[in-house]
Amino acid sequence: MTSFTIPSSITSIGSGAFQWSSLTTVYISDLSAWCNIDFEDGTSNPLSCANHLYLNGTEIKDLVIPSDVTSIGDNSFYNYNGLTSVTIPNSVTKIGKYAFSGCSGLTSVIIPNSVTFIDKGAFDNCSSLTSVTIGSGVSTINDAFSKCIELTDVY
Fold first, then answer.
1. All residues at 6 or more sequence positions from 143 whose CB lies less than 8 Å from its CB, including other chains
2. Exposed, middle or buried by CB within 10 Å (0-12, 13-18, 19+), for 68?
3. pLDDT averaged over every residue in the chain
4. Could you tell me which residues are beta bridge partners of residue 111?
5. What is the mean predicted confidence (pLDDT) over 4-16?
6. CB atoms within 10 A of CB 142
7. Measured between alpha carbons, how far is 129 from 153 in angstroms, rounded to an integer?
């Protein structure tokens, strides 16, 4: 199996569900629902092995989180190497554990003032991340940028 469609009705995926998978492509129809899936860990997210995520037939490279999302869930985009940019709206108040960990194509991130909490490992191992702008609302950053070896500018 090299592709998989995740229905918007899925609310949680257990540990190891996609471990050792040969997936290359994941299809979704609702990005807000995707951001709210309870991924138990990185191996429960099919993006841990697939490098292509399609929303309604269009590949997501420049991610724009929908304005109805208030929290980006744990492991939501874990290890998604195809991601090059992310736009986080003012509706988001929390970025979950390992939400963007291992997104090696991500180069810069702007975290809006509405975000108050950035959880453990949220941007760990984003090896191309060079610039991060952190909004004034952030009160807690929990070891979120470990192994970001190119990170030189933090605002």
1. 120, 121, 124
2. exposed
3. 95
4. 134
5. 95
6. 12
7. 9
CA dihedral 144, 55, 92, 110 (to 10 degrees): 60
State residue 1's pLDDT score. Answer: 85
Q: Give dist(CA 98, CA 119) in Å, integer.
A: 8
Percent of the chain with pLDDT over 90: 94
Tens-digit pLDDT profile for residues 56-98: 999 999 999 999 999 999 999 999 999 999 999 999 999 999 9
What is the rounded CA–CA span in Å between residue 17 and residue 19? Answer: 6
115, 142, 128, 102: CA torsion to nearest 10 = -100
**155 burial type by CB count under 10 A (0-12 exposed, 13-18 middle, 19+ buried):** exposed
The whole-angstrom separation of Cα 101 and Cα 81 is 10
Cα 95 from Cα 75, distance rounded (Å): 10
Q: What is the pTM of this model?
A: 0.94
Handedness of CA 79, 81, 82, 86 (dihedral sign): positive
